[in-house]
Design a protein that fits this description.
The chain has two domains: 70 residues, P-loop containing nucleotide triphosphate hydrolases (Rossmann fold, 3-Layer(aba) Sandwich), CATH 3.40.50; 40 residues, no CATH class. The protein is built from four helices and six strands; from the N terminus they run αβαβαββαββ. It is globular and about 65 Å long.
Length: 129
């Protein structure tokens, strides 16, 4: 018996968002299995989840986080705090509007792909490959 398919656009915003996150996790896992690990970056994800669904999504993110890097960008720190991990708050320099990088990040540049030209008096953040 064949089940009728449902158009993705007809799904609720929350369901669409959850599917999008799960697809990203699956794609990152497939790449990692092939030796091409990539981080999963979620920007203001899961804004349409109810309490039960967000807990299930946190379970999926926690499981995935054991094997791959997951970066969550959000303004809802209390909502995402159950995920654990490290919190980095970025402040903007009022005079330039550029991000200020905390001193701890600057000191760990040898261990991280992030370097800061603040050592030279600049507020610009630079990613190194």
């Amino acid at each position: 018996m064949t089940r009728p398919s449902e158009l993705f656009e007809r799904l609720s915003d929350g369901t669409q968002e959850q599917i999008a996150v799960l697809v990203r996790l699956a794609m990152a896992a497939m790449l990692a299995e092939r030796g091409q690990a990539v981080p999963v970056i979620l920007d203001d994800a899961l804004v349409y989840c109810d309490d039960d669904r967000i807990q299930r999504m946190f379970d999926a993110l926690s499981r995935a986080g054991k094997h791959q890097q997951i970066i969550v960008l959000t303004c809802r720190l209390r909502t995402f705090s159950p995920l654990g991990g490290h919190t980095l708050r970025v402040r903007m320099a009022p005079e330039t509007g550029l991000p200020l990088v905390p001193e701890a990040v600057i000191q760990n540049t040898l261990q991280s792909p992030i370097s800061n030209s603040a050592k030279n008096g600049s507020d610009q953040v630079q990613l190194n490959s």
